[in-house]
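User: My advisor asked me to double-check a structure prediction for Ribulose-phosphate 3-epimerase before group meeting. I don't want to rely on an old file, so could you generate it fresh from this sequence?
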Amino acid sequence: MALIAPSLLSANFLQLQQDCDMLNNSVADWFHIDIMDGIFVPNISFGAMVTQFIINASKKYNDVHLMIEKPGDYIQAFKDAGAHNISVHIEACTHLHRNIQQIKSLGIHAGVAINPHTNVALLKDILVDINVVCVMSVNPGFGGQAFIPHTLQKIKQLRKMIDEQGLSVKIEVDGGVTLANATAIIEAGADVLVAGNTVFKSPNPTETIAALKAL
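Assistant: Sure, here is a fresh prediction for Ribulose-phosphate 3-epimerase from the sequence you gave:
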């Protein structure tokens, strides 16, 4: 059974408390919090201050996804905001292992996110050091995009790499996840489904989360 991680990027920012309460009262497992700087991706979301408000309202595991340049400069701030996991992009980290060490030294989980064009084979030498791989199944920066079908092959390849090393790294899939494709994503080997518009644009978000969880 996959973990469900609704993305707060698709929430109503004028009623974040209500949306956080809804997630707390649902069967969602994680809060997925997308941080965008307008440089690494062509959009700006929010920073550590708003993240702390969200996490203060959260009763779940808090998964922070840094889609930013120079993530090492901000890891301490997001740890202080209450993150349980911080994922950095392999494409943004010249010294990825150093950034992972930095996160782990703070006593929290560390993840690596990869963009659609990035070969998962590049993760081979870092898998042993991390807790999560966030596989982007859309080009990062905006919610509501369509799932890139080739992502399924990347998930399968990554699942094989993790299993062959005997690791417990979770595969998280972020972007375009819907009730229609979630089963195929899980069958490919995903452990965590990030769902933004599918949840927050639903007429009944709580029921949609439950339906995803039941797959």
